[in-house]
Amino acid sequence: MDINSLFKAPAIPSGRNKRKLPAAPSLEMLKKFREEEEGESSILAQEPQESEELDGDSEGRFFGDGLTDEQRNIFEFVDAGDELEAETFDVNGVKKMVLKLEKAINKNQEMRMKFPDSPEKFLDSEAELDEEIKHFAVISEAPEMYTNLIELNAVASILSLLSHENTDIAISAVELLNALTEEDDDGTNEEAEESMKLLVQALVSPTFLSLLGKHRQLTISLQVDNQGLDILIQNLNRLDESLNEDRNGVFQTLAVVENLISIEPEIAEIIVSTTPVLSWLLNRINVKSMDSNKQYCSEILAILFQDSRVNRLKANELDGIDKMLRVLNSYKRKDPKDADEIEFMENVFDALSSCLQEPESKPIFLECEGNELMLIMLKEKVMSRMRALKVLNYATATAAGANNCKRFVDILGLKTLFSVFMKKGVKKLKKAYKNFSDKEEEEHVMCIIVSLLRYLPDGVDRLRLFNKFNENDFEKVDRLVELFEAYIAKAKLANEEIERSKQELLAEEEEITSEDETQFYLKRLDAGLFTLQMTAISIGYLCKQDEVLKKRVVMLLSRKSYSLQVVKDTLQDYLTNLGDGDSENPEDPALFERKRISELMQYLE
């Protein structure tokens, strides 16, 4: 059995794929959780304290061996692992482990009640309890046995430890929960997967959630009746991140939250609606200094907002848009310092973009001067420029973004936008930033232009937009047609590859399924189909607006033996994939879009 697997600490994950400490952590990796600079955070529960050897009056801080907290945790897990080979993961083995843990809990509780004012007298029982908690983590190697843990009421026993007066014990319990809920990268069998889900359901039962958000004094009690998630979140408020052990406790708590969501995605909305975790996360990312926990908070935020309208709307209630913009304001004229901070910045951009998918969020973005901030980033040509385009894409999209379109023009954003469209300064950006993507940039720019064409009302602002295509000898029209032709070529290659795949399936006498068709469509999207469609829509608007612009487009297309018919065919393909919409709902956006596109196609004759 791999002992090292027991102390794989989850680091800041990318997406939902966690990065983990190596099997033998280096000193550099261990230093990830060393003490930060004094005064790093206004959100810390206590002022930074100097490290010193603790005696019996330390109210439960019972370690004093000269090791760092991280080194001590590793050695303790290794010591516990010495007995692993002798451990049997059957029902009797699990019962034995649960019994030993129960005895340690009861003994410690008894000693604390008997000698409440004499910490030195319950110190040994506390150390023994901590050892049993760490040893209990070995059952994470056999998740199929979790059902037995639930039947033996071990979950309640573990959860009772979250409210232990000694935060070291509470943190050890959090570490145990992290180990139990962490999914195996190699995959688990069906029985183990089902047991894991049952454990998560036990952790997030309605009785767990009944007291969430009530910041009461935490005291140990074996009668917690599965209110563990409540205490898990509240523990964030009593941990002092100026201390290594507590800082790691925050990290472990965030890992448990991520694990629960990964196993049961619907838990994301339960956690946000019933706990103060979202408020805590939004405040935590605004702490000035950068550290691993701040980065992890940004990742959890991105996960919480990724697929949940409910969570995005909750963010609006908590001034989430404003708080995320305040964080991003730090990057309007300077780049993040290192890879960790780059990931932090990108997580916040992703979280903001997710929120802007909701119509209710777009006016808030407008009021918080989000357009102005994104425009500054575009002008400065810093790393944040690449993400600012994405945010503006979401902010201006749909009819709900019409006011953002108008504001963008009012603050003279057209000049900067079309500078990006014309690829000015791209060589410098590519040289400076390895992650620069022409494909992403072109997609976001085209989406913004299409939104402006759709939603700017007739008047001065709309005329200013079309004047951009007339100026400098129609250079923007030339660039638009150039983009269209480039993406037509990519689409042709993708279609040829798809046709070969279809022929291979038919040759093997296999039916082309709906799943196959979905994969083929995704391949077309990957080849830039959406950007192609946006350029076609833009060409349609130019042809509708001005006969001179239409003649320019026709002339440019003819150079490569194209005509307006290829643009029309592209729009027809767009309509086909758009669907019919809900004919019974006159407000259905798909119906409006079909009407708009059908009208544009009339000008492509």
From TrEMBL:
Cellular localisation: Nucleus
GO cellular component terms given for this protein: spliceosomal complex
Pfam families in the record: CTNNBL (PF08216)
SUPFAM superfamilies hit by this protein: ARM repeat
Signal peptide from the UniProt entry: none
Domain Beta-catenin-like protein 1 N-terminal intervals: 67-174
Gene3D superfamilies per record: Leucine-rich Repeat Variant
Domain of life where this protein originates: Eukaryota
Region Disordered, residue ranges: 1-58
InterPro entries to which the protein is assigned, alphabetical: ARM-like, ARM-type_fold, CTNNBL1, CTNNBL1_N
Gene Ontology terms: biological process: gene expression
Primary localization: nucleus
Coiled-coil annotated spans: 484-518
UniProt keyword list: Coiled coil, Nucleus, Phosphoprotein, Repeat
Keyword Lipid biosynthesis listed: no
Record protein name field: DUF1716-domain-containing protein
Provenance organism: Basidiobolus meristosporus CBS 931.73
